[in-house]
Amino acid sequence: MMAAACSTSPLRVAPPTSTEAPAVAQRAAAEAEPRAAESSEAAGAVTRPTAPVISAAAARTATAAATSTTAVVPSTTEPDLTWTLLAGGDVLMDRSEAAGVDPFAGIEPSLASADIAVVNVEMVISERGEPADKKYVFRAPPSAAERIAAAGVDVANLANNHAMDYGPDALVDTVDLLEANGVIALGAGATSSDAYRHRIIEVRPGVHVAFVGASMVVPLGFPATQTRPGIASAYQRDRVLANVRVAASEADVVIAVIHWGIERMTCPEGRQRDFAFELLHNGADAVIGHHPHVLQPVVFDDGKLVAYSLGNFVWHYRSGITGDTGVLQIDFDGAEMLGWSFHPHLLDINGAPVPAPEGARFDRINDIVSGDCARHQPPPTTAAPQPSTSAAASSATRSAS
């Protein structure tokens, strides 16, 4: 189903029927069991929502009402619990930030217009450290953290194969700089307790949204331990799923942000679909993915959503399929997911996303996101590494990207 022919109109796509993007949420609904809360110890340190805060003005009003002989008629106005999440894919600012370019300026709708905005930060933000022994290493100057915050990003996933490109000190700098600017650094930290913990945002009074981050693309030495900074590895599957269950017991909505898949593959692979099902089955309401550097389908079924890959969101200039991107919008009423839309964008000469006009690339974005991904499948390059033994699960093999 096509959107109106203008650059700012989102695509509103019906749930796909392609066999390349099966409705994993339907499987989860069919086999789901009651969400069981796991101990915080099983999932690492967690952030729990605090008790509702009553303002001083509200307290004075309540006291006056209790002592007055005048009848108080309670309000019948229902509180507005609607809210919106905007999500983008991989963010790399090594060139744009050095050039003083704001890569978020042309995005429509702006990330700041959302109640919560989440992206994957695919770089180190630090001036410290030495490059890791891998083909591609990325970092941006410290000012990138302030620019990300100014764009309206609330959650920055760091569970990916570039968060440790310049070593543990640079990773800690990245976390500290983002957090100091009010952005949650998800899926990485100074210890495994920090990296694996979920984070909670109260998006509306009494409505809590939890985020869990993990990566299936894990270079050697990247997983966090209790004595070493690093990222949350999805190969610690029991720990990640236990954390999702704890998050579901403490929040109304759970969003899992996962780095996975095969580069340049427009259709998700089996391990993506299988892990998405496990995440939904254990309490996630939405799964937002990235790493393939191209868009992949969005599946919405039975009130749950999987966006397999949101592509390169802020990157180096790309004129082909790796420059097709966009903003995923998910609309909620309290804990209920009402639906989704997709706002197509293209990377400009600075690698910044700008709204896509009509044309072949606009149509290709529509095809892929709505599930017709196979006809746009280019040759694959690298796959997410998979440990061959259980012993290797905690320290996955080196990634080529």
Description:
The chain is an alpha/beta fold and 401 residues long. It has one domain: Purple Acid Phosphatase, chain A, domain 2 (4-Layer Sandwich). Helices cover 21% and strands 23% of the residues. The protein is built from eight helices and 18 strands. Strands 1, 2, 5, 6, 15, 16, 17 and 18 form an eight-stranded mixed beta sheet that branches. It has a six-stranded mixed beta sheet with strand order 8-9-11-12-14-13. Strands 3-4 form a two-stranded parallel ribbon. Strand 8 (199-204) and strand 9 form a beta hairpin. Helix 1 runs parallel beside helix 7 (270-281). It is globular and about 60 Å long.
How are the SSEs ordered, and which strands pair?
Elements: H1 24-31, H2 56-67, E1 82-91, E2 116-121, E3 124-125, E4 139-140, H3 143-150, E5 155-157, H4 167-180, E6 184-186, E7 188-189, H5 192-196, E8 199-204, E9 207-215, E10 230-231, H6 237-250, E11 253-259, H7 270-281, E12 286-290, E13 298-301, E14 304-307, E15 312-314, E16 324-333, E17 336-347, E18 353-355, H8 360-369
Parallel strand pairs: 1-2, 1-15, 2-5, 3-4, 5-6, 9-11, 11-12, 12-14
Antiparallel strand pairs: 1-16, 7-10, 8-9, 13-14, 16-17, 17-18
